[in-house]
Each structure stands twice: as C-alpha cells, then as structure tokens.
Amino acid sequence: MHKVKPLFSWRPYWAQRFGVAPQLPCSREEMDDLGWDSCDIILVSGDAYVDHPSFGMAVIGRVLEAQGFRVGIIAQPDWTGVDDFARLGRPNLFWGVTAGNMDSMVNRYTSDRKVRSDDAYTPGGKGGSRPDRSVLVYAQRCREAYADVPLVIGGIEASLRRIAHYDYWSDKVRRSVLLDARADLLVYGNGERQVVEIAHRLATGEPVAQLRDIRGTGFMTRTIPEGWAEIDSQQIDAPGRVDPHPDPYAAPVQGKPCAERESSNGEVAVPVLRRPRVDREHSFVRMPSYEAVKQDAVLYAHASRVMHLETNPGNARVIVQRHGNRDLWLNPPPIPLTTRELDRVFELPYTRRPHPVYGDARIPAYEMIRFSVNIMRGCFGGCTFCSITEHEGRIIQNRSEDSIVREIETIRDTVPGFTGVISDVGGPTANMYRLACKSPKIEAACRRPSCVYPGICSNLKTDHAPLVRLYKRLRELPGIKKVLVASGLRYDLAVRSPEYVRELVSHHVGGYLKIAPEHTEDGPLAKMMKPGMGAYHDFRAMFEKFSKAAGKEQYLIPYFIAAHPGTTDEDMMNLALWLKRNGFRADQVQNFLPSPMATATAMYHSGKNPLRRVRRNSETVPIPKGLRMRRLHKAFLRYHDANNWPLLREALQRMGRADLIGNGKKHLVPTWQPRGTGSAQEGRRGKGGAFRTRHTGLPDVPGTERPGRKGGRKRRGRPGAG
Length: 722
Hints:
Blueprint: H1 28-34, E1 41-45, E2 50-51, H2 56-66, E3 71-75, E4 94-98, H3 104-108, H4 134-145, E5 151-153, H5 155-159, E6 165-167, E7 172-174, H6 177-181, E8 185-187, H7 192-203, E9 217-221, E10 229-232, E11 261-262, E12 268-269, E13 283-287, H8 290-295, H9 297-308, E14 318-323, E15 326-330, H10 339-346, E16 353-354, H11 364-369, E17 372-374, E18 376-377, H12 388-392, E19 397-398, H13 401-414, E20 421-422, E21 424-426, H14 440-445, H15 465-475, E22 482-483, H16 491-494, H17 498-507, E23 512-518, H18 522-528, H19 533-549, E24 555-562, H20 569-581, E25 590-591, H21 599-606, H22 627-637, H23 645-654, E26 684-685, E27 691-692
Parallel strand pairs: 1-3, 1-4, 4-5, 5-8, 10-13, 13-14, 17-21, 20-22, 23-24, 24-25
Antiparallel strand pairs: 2-16, 6-7, 8-9, 9-15, 11-12, 14-15, 18-19, 26-27
Helix pairs in contact: 2-7, 9-21, 15-17, 17-19, 20-22
C-alpha cells in the first residue's frame, strides 16, 4: 500500500490554544463565547447540525478542530439570499460545502420524480429546507459572500457527481459538479485525509491552485503536467476485423523493419516486441469527454466501466476527462484509514446530540441512530445500484473492540433517554467487520468490482470469529440489556459461519431481521451483482433452526427492488408468485432509483452492460422505463393491494398468463374488485365489511369461481386476504 502521512501526525495549527468547543459554533454569539474573532474554516451543509459521528459535517468539523483549526458551521442556510452565508464572517482558509448525508435530489424526490413531503435530516422532519442540487446553490452563495476565499466541495453529492454523470431528474448527462459549482477543489470519498492536508497546506500560505497532488481530490486544469503518460480510453471496441497495429517502439535491426533474423536452416525468427513499461504513478487514463458521453449513451457506458476499474486505492490511476477546453483531473482514491486513525475519528469530543438551537424539535435521522454504533466503513459487495462502494470504497476500515466498547459506555453514561438497548452495531454491511483479502499484495493489485460476485473470492477471508467475539463482549457490558443488529446483512457471507448466525439469531435480533435478496430471478440478479436465492434459502434455514433452538419466534423480512435494469415483466411476475407462495406481503416497496455514477444507472441510461467490455453490438439490457412500466413492476411487489389489481390483470392478459387471474390460492389476482379500489371503483360494501362485487368482464378461468355466485367464497376483512 502507498505510504501516507498519518492523519493525526500533522503539527497542530496555532489556534489550538482556544481548546475544544462544546459545540462547533453556528453564530457570532457562540464565536464570541469561545473568544474567536474569526473562523479558519466554515462548513456549509444541507443537514441540520447534529454533533454525532454518523453525520459527515460533524466528523469533518471535529477532525479539523483536532488539528487546531477553528471551524464554524452554517447548517441549512436560507439560500435565497447571501445573509446566512455571511453570518460567521470571512473564513481565513476555505469554505467547505456539502449537500449533507444524502444527495439533495435523492433526498427531495421519489423514484417517480415526485416531491417528498419530509426530510429526515431536518428538525421536525419538514421537507423543503434545502435547495435542489444543494452543492451548486450553496457554492454560488459562498462566492457571493466572499469571492476570494478558496472553495472546496465534498460529501456524497459531490463525490457521486465528480465526473460527467447521468442525472435521472433532468434525464440528461450533466458535466462534473466541479465546473457548475465553480469550486477550486472537489473532495470525493471519505474526506478526512484530504481536508486535513488541504487545511494545513493552505495555512502555510500555499495557494489553492498548487494543491494538485492530494489523493481523493479533483480539479480543473488547462495543461497536463510534464512527464505524465496518457492511456487513451476514449473509444470503444468496434466490430469487424482489427489489423495489428505497427509497434511504434520497435527499432529496425540492420535495415529490416521487423527486426527479422535468419537462422542457419533458413527460417526467419521474429522476436516478440513487448510494450514498454509505463510508470503507473505518472500515467493517467483519458476517458471520453463530457461532450462525447453526452451525445453517445454507449460511450457513456464505456466511460462508466473505465471509471469503476480505477477505484482500488492500491492500483488506481489518475482519471482525466475533457470538459470543453479544460480537463477534469481526478487523483486516485484516498488511502483507507487505519484502525488507530478510525478509532480516534470516532472518539473525538462529540456531544452526540443536535445543536441546542433546535430546542426540542425532533430530527428523524438522529432519532434513528442516536443509540447505534458504527464499527466499520466500506463495502466490497459492489452491488450495481448502490453508491457505498463508489463513496466509501471496497476496502473495509475497522475500529478496534476497545474503541467500540468505549463508545457504547459513553452512550450509556451520557446520552439522554438511553434505556439499555443499543439499536444497531454495524455499518454499510453488518457482517463485514474485519473481513479482508488474505494477501495485501493481491488486494492492492485486484481490479474486480466485487469480492463476492459471481461467487465469494477464494482470497477473501470469511471468518466471522472477530465479530462473534465483539458481540459477546458487548452484550456482557454492565447496563446494556440488548445489543441489536439492524444494518444490512450479507447472508451469503453469513452462511459461511454458522457460529455467527447462531450468535446473531440467539441474542441480536429484535423479532425481525431485514435482509435484501432484491430479486428471485437470475436475470435481474446478474445485473445487480447479487447472489442467487440458494444462499437466501440456506440462511433462512439456519435462521429458523437457531431461532427455534433459542426458543424465540422471529421472522426474516426480505427486501426486493422493482424496475431494476435487466428486469422484465415476466421476472416481476415470477417474483410476485414467489412472494405469494412464501406468504410475504410487502407494505413498503422500492423502485430502482438511478443515482449518479452507479453502474446500474449507466445500464439504465445506455441499455448496455458495463460489467463486461462495452461494444456497439454487445449485450442489450432490458430497461423498465416509463411511468406505467415502473408502476407495473412495483404493483407486482404489492400483488395483494386491490388498487393494483386492474393494472395486474391487464398485464397478465397481455403476457398470456390469464391463468393467474382467479379466486383460488394458486392465482395471483382475483377476478373481482372491491368498491373504492382501483380505477374501476367497482362493487359496494355490504354488511359486516363483506365485499359484494360484480364481474370485471374478464373471461372465465378454468377451476375458479366468482365471489357472490353459488359455490363461491365470501370474502371478509381487507381486500386480498387469504
């Protein structure tokens, strides 16, 4: 792994003399109380300020404070004017701008592009407290307030929009957010290393224009530095015969252009000419330009593949993408934090509560994580619809047992309202704690997008013993009644360790355990890079076995996704049939939302599969597009909802599966329609809540009977029961 300066080894900035702030100040009055005349760095965020290590703004703020800098917070400012952005005065070093813990467009709009009525990161859960594309709006206001101050953007929104990206809400390819924000630097991924180095180098008087060698950052440039070799990836492979290219590095020997040598028997020997070695440290991959990928969706898919191949910190190269007359230059990803560094980040003096300015207002996101503990970062699953790997990386960063114990003791002793139950011990994935490649050398050289797909890599250590040991230690702590696991579980890894499943099921499940098979059919699963249902059934058997042994009645709650690229109507129908056979009725379902930069988003936009080499004639991926098709796929997941029955009947007839329409157990939807449901609004309610219905006009299906006719069944209770 590359050498890197330890995170907390920098010489503290002179302002360290002011000490630790009870809360990072949000007003001039708070600055006065601390004895500050100015802030060195001001962080602007679309989230309410919660001083907790699950909120990125608090983490960056406290890390910078630990380096000796005075950090101010402007949370959820009024973006319609500049006054809120000037309330703390001019920052001495730089602005730090983030949309918050979520992309502002994902936060505000549903997968059907409808405006959400709530915002979990706002006091009272009230929606509308941040603008669309918050990074752009906040950056503009910062420039208006103090135009001469260096501007650094970061967080999930900037991270996932760092290159030319497909934007689902405008249905077009947008250029890098760095240009639209007119920022000096873009920080992507977890930003502790980057912002600390930026702050210290600016504090020494180094101009922001010279900060060009910091990993995990991007900037715009008009010239390529001398000594850098270009690897051209601007074109995709074209079908047809490909003639061998002459080797430009081959030197002629004795006037013979191919360096031929004649042997004693008259045969001609042609030596193999090898490519010259390229210094990876001083080479960059030139991706197709913004203008090119904007016009050509297939080229966009190729660019997505190129970008995702350069995400391993051990071997990633610089990525360069042309935007107009300038180049976007993205340095390789940051080096993951060591356990010692991550421990210290999580043990900084957070108050673990919202800023007092919010009073008693409830912040839903805080309520959710108030009694939870994050034990690791990163995910090597590589699910194509997920943004965790693109942001946090696939190398797992672990905290020590002692650090986790200290945090739980802090929660027990200081957080108001604690009842003895830790709501979650996990991270992006609950059971990847201390899982890693068997060889650091192999890990640094690997370019696979996933360590567990299409199967678990033979080089991956899957021993869950450290996690089992941690669980046992935590549940024995004084004052701790229960330690739950609510984070997503990778069940294909869990089944490799029956002892882990036993510990989990016996002591850490609160009646229900949520897992995410996402689908039952191989086609969609392959495009998601998710395991088949065999692993799910194995885990379910172990779950039920150990629940019974523990004398507990517990249930698995599977999550599924609709309208994902690669999914056909038949796939969704088969999933609905599986749900009915297994007695599942989903109350809340998710339609695929194409988030910026995800591999599945490239599939959605291009109809091509970037998991393989992209060509003009390569595999075409079926894409559920259009509101009606997306609603249909969602309706299959909620086959039991009477409001969906008219849409499902129409689809089943069109698919030639009218045999699934009827009133028996083997049917998916009935022929009747309750009053007040669906578009037909058919039927009327009788006494006792029974539904009296009339025929829907569908043809008779053999082996079924209509309700209300002789021999038919009366239905009571909610529609679709039975």
